[in-house]
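= Tokenised fold =
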Amino acid sequence: MDVTLIILSAGNSTRFGYEVKKQWIRIGNKPLWLFVAERFNEFFKFKKTVITANPNEIRLYEKMSDYTIVSGDKERQLSLKNALKEVDTEYVLVSDVARACINKEILQKLLNTKSDCAVPFIKPVDTVVYEDKTINRDKVKLIQTPQLSKTELLKKALETDKLFTDERAAIESIGGKIEYIPGSEELKKITYFKDLDLPCLTPPSKDIFVGNGYDTHRFEENKKMVLGGVEIDVNYGLKAHSDGDVVIHSLIDALLGAAGYGDIGEFFPDTDEKYKNANSVELLKEVIKILTSTGFEIVNADISIIAEKPKMKEYKTKIQKNLSNLLNAPVNIKATTNEKMGFIGRKEGIAVISTATLKYKDWYEDYNSRK
């Protein structure tokens, strides 16, 4: 069967109730979205796999996989329509990243269908009341994903402003034939943090990740100098597109390096006027937010400031405390000269070398502590 897989993974995870977005909790060393994509492809050879992502996270998805990554949208259906632009196969299988534990048996049953749309379902076990009246629960179906659809029919069904909760509803609206296949409790959707009690989910790796950062800037007269978010009492600053905080710039590169996310220029390019004279503390806060929401926890940072001037002795502790509070982790600040060699020795500028370590946020431990 000629099939494309679409995994919808662009949600903001607002109901999940955890500092890490659910699509970014780590299963071993893999974020959930990658774990789910590889699980599907282990069971069946899809012609193509398309994953929708938050627009701000597309570069991170692309760094971690060879799948086709497209921009998601605020509505599930709009994300799906974006993904369908990449589909040219007769059939398309659509699943939500929150349905993590797909099994091979259900997948094979879906792929054996001859209908316009095939969907898994489970029956309710409790009494069902609708508009204050008890109804026959044997006639109620609780619909799950993944769902297999004829591609052209699904595209046609979505040529409307009406919003559908799933592919089945869209195809049903234009008279398509629906086939219902017994689903599984293991396909429970991860909506809240308490929903992580699924058999296919394993704890995150205990690995530690190390990154290095280096930055240097020339001095500029009559500009405020800020290092590590602390104002330095001199009459010169550092030449840069932003405020020139060479300490924070180096630290950001170390943090991004440890995560495997690239460098500061990819996130805050100096060609973007939005970052002209930007407060580097705010840039660091944004990077910390990115790391936290995508599953990392900062362990510590070690920073070496290399300069003939200004003298750092009275500022080291202030910088250390400020950065430690921002990172919510231990920070060590060291200062040295360049023994009067090179541009630093000629008192033309400053260089900073940073090392940062990260680990995965242990959602598994947090889950068990909340029981």
Observations:
- The two ends are 44 Å apart (CA to CA).
